[in-house]
Sequence to fold (229 residues):
Amino acid sequence: MCTQMPRKNKHASLPKTSVQLRTKDLCEELLRMCSSSIDPADGLTYFKNMQVITTELSILQKDICMIRNLPKSDFERQKFLLKLKSRLGTCFLKSIDFRQTDDSGFGVFSAEDIQAQECVLRISMEHILSAQSVIAYFPPTLRADPLLRGMENIALSLSLLHELSLGEKSMWCDYLCKQFTCLLFKLHCCLDSLPTSYTTVMYLSAEHMELLSGFPIAGRIPCPNKQLW
Fold:
């Protein structure tokens, strides 16, 4: 009887930067495929090519996604869920509970009857990290700054830096960082769930800008920026 050894992720030993670059290339290729017209005669080939890309993306992200940081034991999972419930309790309009459902994992149970079309969960803007929500908490001087009002990514960057400085006191602590150390005002953060870099429309190539045509964001790009490409 031949015993097959478990298959090892060939990307597991790659540096994080290499994984990010490969992920970026695959995402760009996937975006190009999704924005191109499809010839019905080549439909099967198109599907197979897309399957190859999405499969490699899934393998790449397997060892670096946030799932690996989730609690493993049932006790740890329940403790984690109860912590989220206490922090975001105002979002639940009905009394809810988390319970283990045999082999199906944890489930969300209501402790009271729910009528048809009745709202159970409502997420307020204070629990959404967006430019509009973070600017509302800025001092008047910052809210009046034309750079912050014109470039949402600047406002979000400032807000993220502030949340990082709060450490475990931040409402976004579980999402932003797994490790946080503050020593003599020097911050060392492990941002596993956030990208290490991003590209703004100021630096997009003409090819990338063409891919944005038809999307709502294309109409929001200031005219001076469009002249760059």
